[in-house]
Every structure is written in C-alpha cells, then in structure tokens.
UniProtKB/TrEMBL annotation:
3-phosphoshikimate binds at K23, S24, R28, S168, Q170, D315, K342. Catalyzes the transfer of the enolpyruvyl moiety of phosphoenolpyruvate (PEP) to the 5-hydroxyl of shikimate-3-phosphate (S3P) to produce enolpyruvyl shikimate-3-phosphate and inorganic phosphate. This is 3-phosphoshikimate 1-carboxyvinyltransferase. The active site is at D315 (proton acceptor). The gene is aroA. InterPro entries: Enolpyruvate_Tfrase_dom, Enolpyruvate_Tfrase_sf, EPSP_synthase, EPSP_synthase_CS, RNA3'P_cycl/enolpyr_Trfase_a/b. It holds the Pfam family EPSP_synthase. The keyword Hydrolase does not apply. Keywords: Amino-acid biosynthesis, Aromatic amino acid biosynthesis, Cytoplasm, Transferase.
Amino acid sequence: MTEIKLKPFQKPLTGEVEVPGDKSISHRAVILGSLAKGTTNITNFLNGEDCRRTIDAFRKLGVTIEQEGTSVTIHSDGKEKLTEAKQPIYFGNSGTTARLMLGVLAGLPFFTTAYGDPSLTIRPMDRVVQPMRLMGASITGREKGSYLPTAINGGNLKGISYTLPVKSAQVKSAVLLAGLFAEDVTEVIEHAATRNHSENMLEAFGADIVIKDNAIRITNQSLSAANVYVPGDISSAAFLLASAAIVPGSSISINNVGLNKTRTGIIDVLLEMGANLNISNKKSISGELIGDITVTQEDLKGIVIEGAMIPRLIDEIPVIALLATQAEGDTVIRDAKELRLKETDRIEAIASNLTKLGANVETTEDGMVIHGKTSITGGKVVSYDDHRIAMMLAVASLIADDAIIIDDISSIAISYPDFFKHLDTLKTP
Ligand SMILES: O=C(O)C1=C[C@@H](OP(=O)(O)O)[C@@H](O)[C@H](O)C1
Ligand SMILES: C=C(OP(=O)(O)O)C(=O)O
C-alpha cells in the first residue's frame, strides 16, 4: 500500500511532455512479434506492469524476449514453434493480456493453465471462452470456465463467423488471433467500432486480413517480424489534458500521442465541452496516426456521452467524470455498463470518490449524471487498486480546496509509471 497526501496546487500548468507508449499497442506488438518468424524490435514500449505480463507469458511459451526499459527485441521461430509452459501463466491485473492470450492459447496444440490477481479473477472471461469453444478449444475453469484460473487444451481450431455480443476490442482481438491458427476463414462482425489496433498491426506484420464494412476476416497464416514504434497513449494523455482543461490559466502540449479515430473520444468530448484544443504535426507511423495536442484552459459545459462514442473513450470515463464536475450544467454518461466490469466497478468508484470530494453525482445502471459545477473539497479517497481511479483522484487534487489523501497509488504503475514525474514537469514553470 502506498498512501499519498496531495496538497492543492491551484497554479497554472504549463509546458510539454510525451506520455508513455500506448498500452493496447504495446500488448499487441509483443503478441504479434512472438507469433511472427524473425526478429521484431519495439520502440517506445509501455514498460508498465500489464505489458510486462504479456512479455512474461510468451517467455513461458519459449520465446526469447529482451527488454530494456522501453526497447523490446523479440526473437521467434514463429507460432508453430511455441512450446508448452512448464508453469501456470500469471496475467496479473491485465484484462488485455488475459483475453488476448486466451485467443492465442486456444490455437496452440498443448495444455496451459493461467491465473490472475484478485481483481482479474472476478472479471468475466466467458466472453472469450465461448467463441474459443465454438472454434474447438477445450477450456475449463472456475464457474464452468467463466472466470480465471483456467486450463486450456488448444489446437485443431476451425474458423467461425462470430458477431460480438459485447462491444469489446479484447474479444474481437482474441477471435482474430485464434483465427491465425484455425482451419478455413474466421470472421468477426462488430456492430459498434472498437479500437482497431489488432487489425492495423496484423497488416503491419504482413497478415492477409480483409476488412469490409463491419466484418473482419482472417485465415491461418504465418506472420513476418516487423519493427513497431508505439505512439504515446491517449488514455494516459487524457489525465494531463483534463488537468490543463480544469486548472485556471493552464496551457500544455502533449507530443507524439496516438490519434487513432477509435480512441479519440476524449478529444471530441473536450471540444464539445468547450475546451480550447488544437492538434498539430500529424503523421502516420507503423500504421497508426500520431500528433501533438495542445490544450488551454477554458470554461466547460456539460454534455451527453452515449452510444458509439463509449468504446472510443471507455478508459477515459473516470477523468471525464472529474471534468464534468467542473463544467456548467449536467453531464450525462450512458451505455457504459462495461465500466462495472473493469479493474473495479468504475461507476461506483467514480461516484463514491467524487461525492466524498463534494461533487453531485447520481449513478445509473449504465452510467451516471454529474451535476456541475461544484468545487472539489479535500479528504480521504480510495483507489480500489484501479490505476485510472487513482490518477483521476490525483488530478482532482490540483484544484481541491484542501489536501486529498489517496489510500494506495501503487496501481498507477500498471499503465503510467511516470505519471507523477510528468505532472511535476507541468507544474514547473
Ligand atoms: O483491447 C484493448 O487493448 C482494450 C480494450 C478495452 O477493453 P474491452 O475490450 O473490454 O472493452 C479497454 O477498456 C482496455 O483498457 C484495453
Ligand atoms: C480496463 C483496462 O485495462 P485491462 O482491461 O487490460 O485490464 C484499463 O486499462 O483501463
């Protein structure tokens, strides 16, 4: 447990930073680099706990992976040469590792067992287990395979056509990865766009993948190693963008951030709320758009966030809720029931903490209504071991009337180990 007492800052934030590499893209670079034949070099890799779990998983499956901070080199003889793990694989706190690896393990012709930390152990895995069983994998686990720990007998998969019952890039990616091992064609149909980094990166690794309307098709094939530059994580940038949007007089830039359209809901929300935001230096690297974002503080107003927008900002909702406390009028968030299934029930975690800090938040089954504008008081709050809740609370302290004490900030190492260092950079004129 690492408790922290954050005194109010109440001064403008200025300057520029580069946030760490994107978590979703870092996971996928390790996965595809391990399945591809040859040497894959990853630069600007997110050296956070979740992505290290994905590296450890492939090391256990016999892949040679060298990691020095944000540089990762993978030497693989291809997906056919992976070997049975002698020990259970630990997925830690990482939903992405667990769900994407289940897709890979379903395709591998041997036995694997896997488990997670207490939070991951109560997150649903049946959303991936079901399509894997339809493809022919044998999976057992707690509650008939719906939860970790799990045991997988993979191999001999056949392609399926699968319509996603949940708007989840993790499920889509698991089915596509299993499709690399399956006989015939594997098709995934999604009715709402979710992050498409798997599709982009499969193409970068030479895969023949067909994307037409809302269907993605893939077949059993070999991948070739590639070099991957990981853009800055817009989900991490969101905490700094929100800080600058609410601390009076602030103006900051975040450089080389991923601007993939399936992830930029936070930019659209900031603009709709009235933030002064500009994007420059746009370019495409490793199949992903990147650029620099500048935000200058402005008065904000409440908005409605729902429907197809939700998957484009699902991980940013904790900090968007904080933004909404500083906006004039009501902000309504709906269609976001998935938040109840993240590292913690984020709807309850957001509402209980912000209420303790003087905000006016009503929860609903699939979201919340935030009545702004309210001032943020100090007080004791709890992170529920959730990195995004911990960082949202730290941002709240910037504008609080009194000190905010967060019970435990150790979870921040999952996605943004340098979070406080970067915030300090922006605090220094
Ligand atoms: O595919 C990914 O990398 C992710 C997808 C999202 O989860 P779901 O697929 O469960 O929506 C997101 O919340 C998570 O942080 C990362
Ligand atoms: C939900 C998240 O990640 P994961 O599902 O990989 O645990 C997150 O990073 O906010």
